[in-house]
Write a structure and sequence with these properties.
50% helix, eight-stranded antiparallel sheet, 12 strands, four-stranded mixed sheet
Length: 582
């Protein structure tokens, strides 16, 4: 079964060697999102082949594969490279027709963009009222009237800092308008005419309209202060900002969704441009629009991140030139609200990045099948297979659901046990240590050992300075297995620290929810130990096998507790069995 799965991870390519004419065969890994032309580029270059003179076929087909074919669908197939002269004349005609059709589509697409350039969009009507909503004087002293003097110097700078909040907000809203009214509107109209239907607007822009509405609402809460200053010519008061910022965290909540979707990530746009000519032409047209000032879409999509982090800096500038203690307290409160919200955004972005990281790693893991290393019959392997469902994407056992697993550290090491020494790739997760073997040809990892739960791991230093002894204990606190992991001297200390830190955090998380009987998966439901623990309101960590990292003076006490726990558990098992028999 595993061999069949492995074969789906690559395709076989056959071609004639340019030097001696012999047929050569190579295996090429498949990867979702990687096109055929990209995968074969190095081979074609090395063999002095060209996609203009050669085509690639499935061995069961007479129709050449498009160069933009995703290699993911080719896993397990055999492909042939043929000179175009060898291609059937009927196929050549089909290819010519396809090329002509593609050229016609491209011409109509460019004509549509030209029409946009000449006549604008069909509903592109400038709203004068909307334009007036964002009118702002060119300088703060056009709004308020304060005599210029040395005694007013700090006040003048403060007024300039307050006015900068207004000017930068209007400038930012206009940038958002460009994203919506040019980039997104153009894409919407192109899709309406049947072009770029494969491009998902949300993947590029996320909830950009919501972001725009948020900042328009925020601007409207600032406007009364501006209008009052225009009417009275009296200096801006810092308390005028309080109303706008008092519900900052609630108002700006859509920003969390925006950053979670990561629209300013250039990878999607770069990949799409490389594989989609029409998308590239669309983006080029938008970039050249006079309102964009040659700034690319990626440059506009980074604006929300720049803006959300700038509010605190703007408020700090006002605070630095404010003398009144009450005003200072209000400004500090506003800054605190903004910084708290930015911290939430950072946490959400970090969480998404960690989720993406672990998913990309787990995607390279083969099915868990430790039976490959155990000599046994087909029947035994078949019966044992049902217990090989290791889902590292699932919640962490022993912690409240949902609890997410993250990757903490990974790297190449050497494992030493009775079977000898072998190179491995080790992954340290939130709750587990996983030992794998890298299959280099297909860039996959095979799990060669059962996963080791961190709270059952004890590590010891040994004489070899680049080695760590790992002792794995069972639920009775006695040795289950032991092995040595070797790495460089510098990495040895990093690994040791990472494992101990992860273990401590994992144990702490388990102890926090120790009242939940489900967490004590080593105990029997009828155990008096369980009943005792579940009745406690709070539980302090008691000496356990995990304390083996402490000084030797604590170890005797530790082991005596473990033995006592094992004896009590064993007696409970015997009592249950006897009660059922009797």
């Amino acid at each position: 079964m595993s061999k069949k799965d492995s074969s789906q991870k690559f395709f076989t390519l056959r071609f004639n060697d340019g030097d001696n004419g012999d047929e050569k065969t190579v295996k090429i890994p498949v990867k979702k999102g990687k096109i055929l032309k990209e995968s074969l580029g190095a081979i074609f270059t090395g063999q002095k082949l060209s996609f203009d003179t050669h085509s690639v076929f499935l061995d069961t087909s007479k129709t050449p594969l498009p160069q933009g074919t995703d290699t993911f669908v080719l896993g397990g197939h055999n492909l042939l490279v043929k000179e175009n002269d060898e291609v059937d004349e009927r196929i050549k005609n089909l290819m010519k027709e396809e090329n002509k059709k593609s050229q016609d589509i491209n011409k109509r697409f460019l004509d549509l963009l030209d029409r946009f350039s000449t006549y604008g969009f069909e509903d592109d009507i400038e709203n004068k009222d909307s334009k007036n909503d964002f009118f702002l004087e060119s300088a703060w002293n056009d709004v308020v009237d304060i005599p210029h003097s040395d005694e007013n110097k700090r006040l003048l700078i403060q007024q300039q800092s307050i006015f900068e909040i207004f000017t930068t907000e209007v400038g930012y809203i206009k940038d958002l308008e460009i994203i919506i009214k040019i980039f997104k509107r153009c894409l919407d109209l192109l899709r309406k005419d049947g072009y770029l239907l494969e491009v998902e607007p949300y993947a590029i822009f996320a909830n950009i309209e919501e972001i725009y509405n948020v900042n328009v609402t925020f601007w409207n809460s600032l406007k009364p202060a501006l209008e009052n200053a225009r009417a009275t010519k009296i200096a801006f008061k810092t308390n005028i900002l309080l109303k706008a910022f008092e519900k900052f965290e609630i108002l700006f909540q859509p920003y969390i969704e925006f950053f979670n979707e990561d629209p300013c990530n250039k990878k999607y746009l770069i990949y799409s441009e490389q594989t989609n000519l029409l998308l590239k032409q669309y983006l080029s047209w938008c970039d050249a629009h006079e309102k964009c000032m040659r700034l690319k879409l990626s440059g506009f999509l980074i604006k929300p991140l720049q803006r959300i982090t700038k509010y605190s800096l703007l408020l700090r500038a006002v605070l630095s030139k404010t003398d009144d203690l009450n005003d200072k307290a209000m400004l500090e409160e506003m800054m605190s609200r903004v910084e708290t919200f930015v911290s939430k955004i950072n946490a959400a972005v970090h969480l998404r990045q960690e989720q993406e990281k672990i998913l990309s790693i787990l995607a390279k893991f083969d099915t868990y099948n430790p039976m490959e290393a155990v000599p046994c019959s087909d029947e035994v392997e078949r019966l044992a297979t049902e217990f090989c469902n290791l889902d590292l994407k699932a919640s962490i056992p022993g912690l409240p659901s949902p609890s997410q697993r993250f990757i903490i550290k990974d790297g190449p090491m050497k494992i030493v046990d009775k079977q000898g020494k072998k190179e491995v790739q080790v992954f340290l997760f939130t709750d587990l240590l996983v030992v794998t073997k890298l299959k280099r040809k297909i860039d996959r990892y095979r799990i060669i050992r059962p996963p080791y739960r961190l709270n059952k791991i004890v590590i010891r230093d040994i004489k070899d300075s680049n080695s760590i002894l790992f002792v794995y204990l069972n639920e009775y606190g006695v040795l289950s297995t032991a092995f040595i992991l070797q790495t460089s001297v510098g990495e040895q200390e990093k690994w040791k620290t990472a494992v101990l830190d992860a273990k401590e955090k994992y144990q702490s998380s388990r102890m926090t929810y120790f009242n939940n009987i489900e967490l004590l998966d080593e105990e029997l439901p009828d155990s008096p130990i369980i009943q005792n623990l579940s009745n406690r309101k709070s539980v302090k960590p008691t000496p356990s096998v995990d304390a083996l990292e402490n000084k030797n003076s604590n170890e005797d006490f530790q082991w005596s507790n473990i033995k006592l726990f094992g004896i009590v558990t064993f007696i409970c098992i015997v009592n249950i069995v006897l009660s059922k028999i009797l």
